[in-house]
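Components:
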Amino acid sequence: QKEVEQNSGPLSVPEGAIASLNCTYSDRGSQSFFWYRQYSGKSPELIMSIYSNGDKEDGRFTAQLNKASQYVSLLIRDSQPSDSATYLCAVGQSGGSYIPTFGRGTSLIVHP
Amino acid sequence: DVKVTQSSRYLVKRTGEKVFLECVQDMDHENMFWYRQDPGLGLRLIYFSYDVKMKEKGDIPEGYSVSREKKERFSLILESASTNQTSMYLCASSLGSAGNTIYFGEGSWLTVV
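Structure:
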């Protein structure tokens, strides 16, 4: 069973701080990685995708991928209360599967 | 923008009723998915379809069936609703090749009483 692990949290950070969300995965052949944000009672929305080792930045968000260590992380700079949500990590499986594996999510709370 | 539309957002059904959840996507995606999401259990895949009339069971197909007669439409059917099927149901779609982004609909909240 291919697994994606996330700390369920909650991760609590003060407004303006950097929030760091981590995700590890078991399928060494995985090639695609995604971060979704899910507000309470809403559906997941894509924040970022990353396919190569290293960092990928989009505004206040930075995704970091390290395939050798099998982890992917999401950094949120200048965290805002509106960033409070559950963040889901998803990993595309190897072997040509169309079905990604989702972690259970990390709850982030940004307090003023 | 990708649009995945779930027409029924909030439903209340009685035990034993047949329930249809409809999903339509407008991006010509080959793959469509039905998930359910429950607190503490994360997203669980019910069924997956990679082409018209093609379907594969996910992790929790028992009590559900699906229909995909047209590429843009994927329906989830609860043949005889039970209270343990009370949940949020999420439809999603993606392009046909592996590793593509999954886009979710807004979700359907089903309560079975």
